[in-house]
């Protein structure tokens, strides 16, 4: 027992420096871009997340650089999730309760309708039915993370890997476009900060872009958008259960299953609970907010570096049309339901 423990510790001590050297170049460039974006945002009184995204896109050649690729990917995933988890210190359950019963209803209805219509459209466009389930789930829940989770849960079929790759690329590209366009739509519709947060949190695919779009408008909009988005993330659980039932029905029990809920969503809820109980002091909350802001700026820089819109051209027009329809449908559903239930 002791020898096994010592062996694990020894392996970790050997692996950690190697992993650090692998991640350092990419982490360094994303941090530099985030620092530049922070300077520009403070100097010109403009949205930090938008600056970080645009500067990252301008340097997307670095994502193909072998020395930087691992660190950029780490920033876009692990650093992002840490930043989102720390947003929990800004939220209390009283704030969630003040949103009312409408947001959960809107999230559930838009999810069911989006996946259902996507499945029917995929069949009508002569794609595999599960492709519609995959793209619809990714659009309605949490983008690339949902695509990977659902792909792992769905049964194997010809073209599954290609479908998953396209879905990840497509949903990431559309989410980036939505991050820039949807705040403009919210302004044009003269939505209140809470209504804008509901629209942004209920429609944009990936968590990073929801955070970027929400906080580019106001703190209140960002807070509401984050809470609503994490409601959508929580819907990953029942949808994965449905995917597992489909897999079981088709006799495919292979493959490992992803966690039913991402750790950052659980951490967000836990921190919100601690904050609601008054267990987090103001000084700690301020530090967590600053760390979260830096993590999100670094992650947004990495997201920009990983954005390759030209890759969509290689997959043909019909799959792109399907995902655009799903995205527009979700936006119309959220706006329509918000108006109807409001």
Describe the structure.
Its main location: membrane. Keywords: Cell membrane, Membrane, Transmembrane, Transmembrane helix. With 342 residues, the protein is mostly helical. It has one domain (22-341). The chain contains 15 helices and no strands. The protein has helices at residues 2-44, 48-58, 66-86, 93-98, 102-124, 129-140, 143-153, 160-188, 193-203, 207-217, 219-234, 236-249, 263-276, 282-306, 317-341. Helix 2 (48-58) packs parallel to helix 14, helix 3 packs antiparallel against helix 14 (282-306) and helix 9 runs antiparallel to helix 10. The radius of gyration is 20 Å and the shape is globular. The relative contact order is 0.18. Mean pLDDT is 81; it is low at 4-9.
In short:
The chain is mainly α and 342 residues long. It has helices at 2-44, 48-58, 66-86, 93-98, 102-124, 129-140, 143-153, 160-188, 193-203, 207-217, 219-234, 236-249, 263-276, 282-306, 317-341.
Low-confidence spans: 4-9
Helix % is over 70%
**Helix/strand/pairing category:** mainly alpha
- What letter string, H or E per element, gives the SSE order? HHHHHHHHHHHHHHH
Biggest beta sheet attributes: none
Mean pLDDT: 81
Number of strands: 0
Q: What is the C-alpha radius of gyration, as a whole number of Å? A: 20 Å
Distance N to C terminus: 61 Å
**Percent of residues in beta strands:** under 5%
What's the shape? Answer: globular
Give the total of domains. Answer: 1
Total helical elements: 15
Family: Belongs to the UPF0324 family.
Pfam families: Cons_hypoth698
Membrane topology: Multi-pass membrane protein
InterPro entries: UPF0324_pro
């Amino acid at each position: 027992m002791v020898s096994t423990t010592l062996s694990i510790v020894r392996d970790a001590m050997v692996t950690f420096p190697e992993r650090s050297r692998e991640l350092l170049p990419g982490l360094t460039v994303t941090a530099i871009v985030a620092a530049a974006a922070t300077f520009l945002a403070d100097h010109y009184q403009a949205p930090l997340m938008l600056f970080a995204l645009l500067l990252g896109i301008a340097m997307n050649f670095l994502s193909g650089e072998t020395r930087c690729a691992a660190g950029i990917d780490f920033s876009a995933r692990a650093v992002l999730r840490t930043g989102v988890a720390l947003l929990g210190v800004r939220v209390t359950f009283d704030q969630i309760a003040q949103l009312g019963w409408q947001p959960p209803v809107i999230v559930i209805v838009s999810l069911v309708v989006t996946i259902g219509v996507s499945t029917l459209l995929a069949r009508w466009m002569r794609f595999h039915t599960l492709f519609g389930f995959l793209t619809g789930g990714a659009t309605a829940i949490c983008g690339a993370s949902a695509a990977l989770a659902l792909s792992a849960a769905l049964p194997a079929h010809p073209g599954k890997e290609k479908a998953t790759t396209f879905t990840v690329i497509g949903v990431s590209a559309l989410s980036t476009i939505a991050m820039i366009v949807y705040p403009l739509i919210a302004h044009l519709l003269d939505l209140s900060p809470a209504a804008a947060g509901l629209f942004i949190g209920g429609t944009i695919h990936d968590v990073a872009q929801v955070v970027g779009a929400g906080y580019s408008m106001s703190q209140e909009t960002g807070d509401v958008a984050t809470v609503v988005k994490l409601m959508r993330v929580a819907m990953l659980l029942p949808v994965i259960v449905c995917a597992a039932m489909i897999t079981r029905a088709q006799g495919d029990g292979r493959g490992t299953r992803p966690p039913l809920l991402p750790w950052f969503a659980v951490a967000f809820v836990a921190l919100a609970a601690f904050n609601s109980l008054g267990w987090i002091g103001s000084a700690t909350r301020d530090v967590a907010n600053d760390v979260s802001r830096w993590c999100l700026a670094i992650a947004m820089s990495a997201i920009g570096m990983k954005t390759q819109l030209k890759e969509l051209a290689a997959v043909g027009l019909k799959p792109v049309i399907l995902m655009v329809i799903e995205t527009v449908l979700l936006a119309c559903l959220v706006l329509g339901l918000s108006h109807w239930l409001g």
